[in-house]
Design goal:
about 25% helix; 10 helices; elongated; alpha+beta; about 400 residues; single chain; 6-stranded mixed sheet; 4-stranded antiparallel sheet; Double-stranded beta-helix; NE0471 N-terminal domain-like
């Protein structure tokens, strides 16, 4: 969003004013101007911080620009600034909500005067209102949220992801370590947990409440086919994401092997973001299909018909991958547009997912709870014979991100 908006003439004039100020601070008068007066001066008015800070501000006919000591420029529209005044009449600091509505703001809103001192910007608006903004606050609002860097991975990551004990999860340090691991790798573990549903629920609630679905809020499955889903069987399951048929798939899936007396039944984890990146590096055309061609996912059971139409890969507004919705079991028979290109792209993604070197196989034992970012990490299992009962829950992605922000992991 950082734009160089000054024309050559305007930029030269700005430099001239700046040099004049540096050589003789009292030789240039800075005073309020109307838009028409600013137009005569090249469309802007320029001021430096009067307290010795090396920041400066320029005002054009449409927006305000802050020039940082790093030479970075931050641009803010007049309407945005006026709407986001944080004085007590414009903003409720108790509820953290605006008092001013967009229809309350004049369409021709603009400053009549402004000053910059001690990294605080003061503006007098043409509606008579006075606003004050800290440059640090403006800087935060001008950029995307910062979060721990996602680490793409293949194979066994047990030496890298976090293992937090049931007692540590109750502390700020413990929950921070777990969530940081989920943000970086998409996986984290809690150990020494009593193998029952209630204790598992208490552990999960440190991140957020279990999500209520047709499977319940907390669920437990074995091979009894309580629901018409292959998870409720003992057959092998290829790597996939869960709840692809939800309008918004669950953000976290949590598993706890409550009982285990069987052969097989190992858990499979695969980094879906790494697989997607592999496709992107090999073929931009196929990757484009994965993020633009919609396919329908569905779940059918008596009394339930869930369906969602979505692309397999979704991106954030800043272009970074945000979600992979990959489940070859749950796609409906509805034909996608550009059918041939769709199958080519999914086949290539499946090849990246199924690479043996990409797979992390582990055995879940009673007492260990695994947290999985369901928007990123695919899970599956090997077939098993014997007794194996797994409990767990889903958690909304919003709850995970909210907890991360409250712990300052996302800023």
């Amino acid at each position: 969003m950082f734009k160089h908006f000054l024309s050559n003439n305007r930029f030269k004039l700005c430099l001239a004013v700046q040099k004049q100020l540096q050589s003789n601070p009292h030789s240039v008068k800075l005073y309020s101007k109307t838009a028409s007066q600013r137009k005569q001066l090249g469309g802007f008015e320029y001021k430096e911080d009067t307290s010795g800070f090396k920041n400066s501000v320029a005002v054009t006919n449409t927006h305000l620009e802050v020039k940082e000591t790093t030479h970075e420029k931050l641009e803010f529209g007049f309407e945005w600034l006026r709407e986001n005044c944080r004085c007590t009449s414009c903003y409720n600091g108790i509820t953290n909500q605006r008092n001013v509505q967009i229809f309350d703001i004049r369409t021709d809103i603009q400053p009549t005067n402004f000053s910059l001192s001690h990294n605080n910007l003061k503006i007098v608006w043409n509606d008579g209102h006075h606003s004050e903004y800290a440059l640090d606050w403006l800087r935060v609002q001008s950029r995307d949220e910062a979060s721990p860097t996602e680490v793409l991975w293949s194979g066994d990551m047990s030496a890298h992801v976090e293992y937090v004990t049931a007692s540590e999860i109750k502390t700020r340090n413990g929950i921070t370590r777990l969530i940081k691991s989920l943000l970086e790798y998409g996986v984290g573990f809690v150990t020494n947990v009593k193998p029952d549903i209630q204790t598992t629920k208490e552990v999960i609630r440190h991140i957020g409440p279990p999500q209520q679905t047709l499977f319940g809020s907390m669920w437990e499955f074995s091979d009894t086919m309580d629901h018409l889903d292959t998870a409720y069987s003992n057959v092998a399951l290829d790597a996939h994401t869960d709840t692809s048929y939800f309008i918004q798939p669950a953000g976290l899936i949590i598993f706890h092997c409550i009982k285990r007396n069987c052969e097989g039944g190992k858990t499979l984890l695969v980094d879906g973001f790494r697989a997607a990146r592999e496709v992107e590096l090999e073929s931009q055309a196929l990757y484009h299909c994965l993020k633009t061609i919609h396919t329908e996912f569905q779940y059918l059971e008596k009394g339930h018909h869930l369906a969602s139409l979505s692309t397999i890969i979704r991106h954030k507004p800043n272009g970074r991958i945000n979600q992979i919705r990959y489940n070859l079991y749950d796609r409906s028979a509805r034909q996608p547009s550009q059918s041939r290109q769709f199958y080519q792209s999914v086949r290539r993604l499946a090849a990246a997912v199924r690479k043996p070197e990409a797979e992390w196989w582990l055995t879940l034992e009673p007492g260990t709870v695994v947290f999985i970012n369901n928007w990123r990490v695919l899970h599956g299992r090997s077939a098993y014979h014997g007794q194996r009962s797994v409990g767990g829950a889903y958690v909304h992605m919003g709850n995970l991100l909210s907890r991360a922000r409250s712990l300052a992991l996302i800023k």
